[in-house]
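Format is chain and fold; as here:
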Amino acid sequence: MTSPNTAREVQKRLKKLGDPEHAAVGQRFFKTGPGEYGEGDKFLGIRMPVLRELAGEFRNLPVSEGEILLHSPFHEERILAILILIRNFKKKDGKACKYIYELYLKSTEYINNWDLVDVSAAHIVGAYLIHKNKRPLYRLARSKNLWERRIAIVATFEYIKHHEFSETLKIAQILLTDPHDLIHKATGWMLREIGKRDVATEEAFLTEHYKKMPRAMLRYAIEKFPEGKRQGYLNGKI
C-alpha cells in the first residue's frame, strides 16, 4: 500500500478507523465540556497505540501537510501530526529542526491538552534548545496560555534525562504560584523525575518550597518517597 502523502488522504484513513463509543470516552476523559480545560475538542475515537503505528507509516508526510493536521479540530489528527513531527525532528538537519520547532511554538493554540504537550514538549522544544539559550522557556513559563506554561516545564524533561536540573528548578519556582492544577501536576512530575536521578537535589528544592507549594504539586513530587518521609512532607514536619 502506498503511504499517504497529503493530509486529506490521512484524514480519510483516520475517519475509517474512528470509533464513536471510544470518542465519547475521550471527550469525557479530556474534559471537553463547557468551562473545562478541553472545552469544544472533538474526537474520532482512535487509541494511542494505533496513532503511534500510523506515525511510522506516515513518517514521510511533508511537514506542510502535517501542519494541516496539526490545525485540525480533531484531537487524534493533531496528536498524529505531532508524532510525525517528532519523527521528522529526530532525523532532520539543523535548519529543518528549527522549522519544526518554530512551527510547534506558533501552533500552541492547537497543542491544547496535556497529552499533546506531554508527548512532544521535551522531544521538540527541549531538544531544540538543549545547546541554546533557554530564554524561550521562561517566556512560555510566564505565558497566560495554560498549555504554553505546561510546555515550558515538560520541555525540561529533556535536560533531566541528561542529569541537568537547573532549568527545571528555576521554572518550577516560577510556577509555584500558578493557579492551575494541570501545571501543579506537571511540575510535581518533573521534580519527581529529578528525584529519581538525584534525590538530594529534589529534597533541597522541596525543603525550601514545600510549605507553600500547591498540594497537587507536592503530592506528585513525593509520590515515590518512603511512606514516613512522604507523610512528613504532607504534614509539614520535615
User: Anything to note?
Assistant: The mean pLDDT is 95. Residues 75-91 form the longest helix (17 residues).
